[in-house]
Structure prediction request, 564 residues.
Amino acid sequence: MKIIREIPAMKDWVRAVKKKGETICLVPTMGYLHKGHLDLMRMGKPMADHLVISIFVNPTQFGPSEDLDKYPRDLPRDTELAASVGVECIFHPSAEAMYPKGYCTYVEVENISEGLCGASRPGHFRGVATVVTKLFNIIEPDIAIFGEKDYQQLAVLRKMAEDLNMNVQVLAHPTVREDDGLAMSSRNKYLSTEQRQYALVLSQALLKARRLVEQGERSAEAIKAEAVRMIEQTPESTVDYVEIVDPALLKPVERIEGRAVMALAVRVGATRLIDNITLEAS
Amino acid sequence: MKIIREIPAMKDWVRAVKKKGETICLVPTMGYLHKGHLDLMRMGKPMADHLVISIFVNPTQFGPSEDLDKYPRDLPRDTELAASVGVECIFHPSAEAMYPKGYCTYVEVENISEGLCGASRPGHFRGVATVVTKLFNIIEPDIAIFGEKDYQQLAVLRKMAEDLNMNVQVLAHPTVREDDGLAMSSRNKYLSTEQRQYALVLSQALLKARRLVEQGERSAEAIKAEAVRMIEQTPESTVDYVEIVDPALLKPVERIEGRAVMALAVRVGATRLIDNITLEAS
Prediction:
């Protein structure tokens, strides 16, 4: 297992691979790996000659009052876990190497970035699109895999790759969940034992929405109201947003017709958690 | 000479070249080629295995009241001229292929884009940075050459390539001038015979500035004032801006110390012309 910290060294490694005509699959992460990340890596392993992951807690996607400094980090454990699923190389740059003094270039995906998490985290997706563009230029992956748990991120990055004619296939992996339904997230670590229980309301509200649609409910308003009600009844839990949108451009829909995505963000104590589910009117 | 209009066909051409381990030099243009463009191509010809130019009048870099529709176009003539300097392939996409319905991703280079032309043409450099990112992703050049006449564009693109870790070397070619000093530009075509004479004030004001510095003048204010005076004395000519800035970040300087760039934009009749010169205090 190779850990590369410098951008020029990473580019050298990539150049040697490309010279042989071989392919690269990249799984970008912020580290503190969990089973969700590992499933993305397992998915990527057979898809290319080389499986690379990046571990970088990207400062430009955190707001000034967010958890950049306390975001959990554990490189030794991450290295072991990545090795266990066949990762060949970890790119782990410093913030100073990625954003040197005077850095001033940003990639913006308009519209899709603005609602949902974009509304409560201004600049977040600009930071995501920018760092992923940089990672794509440094690692030149043929395939990059992102988790569906961060649905808006996935939609933003797909649109970015398409709009900017990037030479990479952006693939999604379904949200990986704990046995009781909680979507895996490095931020789950912040939860107390009680909060860990309260946090089940996210997946339960989404499953309830799916059942409502299966029972014939088509009004987005009614489905969202039920989710809000469930969240508000849960201790320590407050709604950041509950929204039902079209799957590609993430525009709110009024009625469920064909496929839609229900996405929500909930604060449980001080921890902001997100989750989403596909709703399908048959 | 190959003219490729479709993005997938261009990517196929590039893939075949890269598979052989060969290199590409790109000269991006908006067409209506003049000797300035051809000199850039001559410079690029020996630098890579393949010389590609793009001809694309990029709508996203024109403001709503600017000359997008009347910008001069002449593909048959451009093709002949490009062939005469050894261009192997012209990429000539449609605006619809480059910016399909729903397009929403933009690259912004902050700070450097804001003064000079950026102040009178809001959004211009965002359009430039975006289209050049797209061209770089489609054509994957090892080297790209831009003219120094568009000095701010060059500085923006250099910073963009560096910040986003792009795998391309951005090179500059000195401004190519008519015998009487007028910087070559496709927009010179808009000038009447009289205006063509008045337009000499741009290069003359810059040369006067250089002489002032050689004579010991160090005050940017004094040097700029002389240029403004010369322009205001010229019929049909109005100052858009006259500025002296540092060469990399384009921040205005108060005194000439070491190298600086004096840049100006002048409206001659309805035509906006730009030019610049390096000033050096010895």
Q: What stands out?
A: Chain B touches chain A at residues 7, 11, 19, 21, 102-112, 129-130, 133-134, 137-138, 140, 159-160, 163-167, 249 (CB under 8 Å). The CA atoms of residues 205 and 230 of chain B lie 7 Å apart. Residues 186-277 of chain B form a domain with the Pantoate--beta-alanine Ligase; Chain: A,domain 2 fold (CATH 3.30.1300.10). The mean pLDDT of chain B is 97.
